[in-house]
Amino acid sequence: MTNFISIHDVTDLQALIKSGLEAKENPFADQHLGKNKTIGLIFFNSSLRTRLSTQKAAQNLGMNVMVLNVGQDSWGLELEDSELGNPVIMNGDKAEHVKEAAAVMGRYCDIIAVRAFAGLQDRDKDYREQVMTQFVKYAGVPIVNLESATRHPLQSLADCITIEEFKTKARPKVVLTWLPHFKPLPQAVANSFAEWMNHNDVELVITHPEGYDLAPEFVGNAQVTHNQNEAFEGADFIYGKNWSSYTHYGQVLVQDPSWAVTMDKMRLTDNGKFMHCLPVRRNVKVTDEVLDSPQSIVIDQAANREWSAQAVLKEILQNG
Ligand code: CP
User: Fold this and answer.
1) Do you know which SUPFAM superfamilies this protein is assigned to (predicted)?
2) CATH says 155-302 is which class?
3) Where in the chain is the domain with CATH 3.40.50.1370?
4) Contacts for 30-36 with beta carbons within 8 Å, 24 or more apart?
């Protein structure tokens, strides 16, 4: 593994899950790998879990960590490249071009990890993954995706580790359900979860209201239904997430509160576990009763972010 942008950078998913579980058992076994190495964590957007878990994972591996909030701690970054006959003229509010910024960060860091969400204004632009692409192009060191416009692979790996720990059947039924929300949110977590589950040994069902289909390349072989109750029947894992429309890009088409996860819906499952990447708005997307029940494993899931990050950083350091 050189970069970790998506599942396509993973050669053996089961081995990576196992590596995460081994890190959890013995967090400091590989401290020598990161000695005198530095990781830069670059945030264009807010974070709690991703920031702290990646920092902790890097420290477990003996690395030094630097964190930068773009636009707050640093200059605003211009991301567009000049084209022949069409130069980018930087006379606006962006004082530095990513071409210099990423290259300079690459001189200070052995690995750079970047978070940059979708703008939700221009689908083609978001799905081109401009920020990740520019960092890969200009940094000259391995790049790790801390959630990009279309994917959140460290979250998805933590989700795989969590399902591995909690599953009671060889091939569990996993349901990705859309949840109601009043603000437009990116598709990244849902896309990524569907993509990784398509590579995992699970029965994947995706349920959402009409108009909320994910891009076909992420849906893969999943069964898709607009009947949430039917989807929940016999499920082993319920993975809740809101996303805005992909078809009517970035729009909130429905806020129907009946799509929230309640205890009545959880009773349709086979004693299923409730998962969510967090942060979650209580009693908007899921009730207190579900989140506070033994069926909720959201804290274990968030804790596994440390081990997913450690497995990925370890593999990059070993290949460096
Ligand atoms: N799940 C997740 O990525 O959390 P943060 O946005 O807090 O990092």
Assistant:
1) Aspartate/ornithine carbamoyltransferase
2) alpha beta
3) 7-151+305-318, 155-302
4) 30/60, 30/61, 30/62, 30/314, 30/317, 31/60, 31/61, 31/62, 32/62, 33/61, 33/62, 33/314, 33/317, 33/318, 34/58, 34/61, 34/62, 34/63, 34/313, 34/317, 35/62, 36/64
